[in-house]
Amino acid sequence: MRWLACELHTHTNHSDGKQTLEELTAGARRLGFDCIALTDHNTMSGLKDRERIESETGLTIIPGMEWTTFYGHMVTVGSMSLAAADWRRATPGNIAEGVAEVHRLGGLAGLAHPYRIGNPVCTGCYWEFEIQDWREIDYIEVWSKTFAPIQADNHRAFGLWTELLNAGVRIAATSGRDWHEQTETDDPLSVTYLGLEERSDEPLTVAAAAMAALGAGRASVTIGPLLTMEVRSEAGRAYGIGEAVPAGANGFEARAQILFSVRQGLWELEPQPFRLLITGSAGTIAERTIEPADGDYALPFPPDASRPLWIRAELWGVVRGASVRIAFTNAIYFD
Amino acid sequence: MLIDRMQTLKPEDSRSHIRCPFQLEQSASKMFIHFSYGPKLLDDRQQARELMEECVERYIEPERRSLVLGSMDRYFPLSNLITVSVDDPETYRGACHRHDPEQQLFLGESASSPGLTKGRLPSGLWSVTLSVHSIVTDTCEYRLRIWTEDPTTDQSAFS
């Protein structure tokens, strides 16, 4: 599995960004990203030089558009045709039609910063669309802006994601800086890593493989080290992030892998014993402290643990005086 | 001139789209859209505070409301926001989602203003949509003008 460092929510001067796509991609490169999604508000005209800029920078640019409506912002990614879905038809009750249209056009749809303060401060920024069936939504941007783990609106979004997982909905979670301009910041920056499958039978472009990963929930979000996980059953089978452990498989252990060596020099955490935990619908089922070095950790499920609906791995530590979730994986599900 | 319209909007027009269709009799080489609105900002602090109280009640969880209200000045001045999007007779031609209260936009075969898609300008029924995201002032007046540069007469619209 190759883990692609992605920034999934960006803007240029084609909407209200103060940067060209060249400036954005150069900035993303300097920060160690492999891939960005360009999600300008209600337009895709900023992608006209996409291929040239991709080949010049080596950065993958996923086409996207942020539906910037009166009742919520919805990030749509993964197809050059997404502008054909009419964001202006969105009403509080009909977002499912918009999502279906995005899917028909080959894209994925996610809630952008669902709890950011809305009108008149940030028009349409708070998600007010009614969702009848959450399974139609592909992902939730649970971490928005910089130093995301401490933001109150992100706590609510993270809580919404967890609630949905507990209700049996299989839905991905991402970060997105909502990056509008090249400004220097000391704040920790989030990265969404997407797990690209190695496929020799039907090679995909990097952008397509990244979208397949997001659609399958093969994602891990962090302000530093890359945290991944798999579940091994008694029978020796391994199940990765986004996958479902079939009914009948028993006797589990979680294997977490942490890479502090990713994007070296581009982020910093105070050295400390970090807390690694496996948590899910049945609460925290395994926990240990780890040193800030690359490592693999076996975390057996306690023998009396009831079978969860889902689990994820989380890494906790102190950042700028606050105890925060530094990284979290997307879920592994249990049928 | 294909369109020259002015209208006064009120806060109750927030969250509505104003569709402005027009017929382009023959294909053109360049189309100009000038859009302006004002006032942009709500200068009345008392009015702004009242709007913020409603906003906080609606969007902030109860335990954080007093904190947000205590620092609401960072959101001031509140502003009106109206954005432009364009449809040609066949397809969506993009949007200019930005805060400038005056926008001089164009569409052309080989280039367009950022936000709009370049390409041919076919004859038929076009439409410019004004999306009224938010009006916070008692009234807000806009003016929308649209015209084309005729390929045969070559008169510069900006001169």
Automatic annotation (TrEMBL), chain A:
The keyword Hydrolase applies. It comes from the Bacteria. The keyword Membrane does not apply. InterPro entries: PHP_dom (IPR004013), PHP_domain (IPR052018), Pol/His_phosphatase_N (IPR003141), Pol/histidinol_Pase-like (IPR016195). One of its GO terms (molecular function) is 5'-3' RNA exonuclease activity. SMART domains: POLIIIAc (SM00481). Keywords: Hydrolase. Residues 6-71 form the Polymerase/histidinol phosphatase N-terminal domain. This is CehA/McbA family metallohydrolase. It comes from Cohnella zeiphila.
From TrEMBL, chain B:
This is Uncharacterized protein. It comes from Cohnella zeiphila. The lineage of its organism: Bacteria, Bacillati, Bacillota, Bacilli, Bacillales.
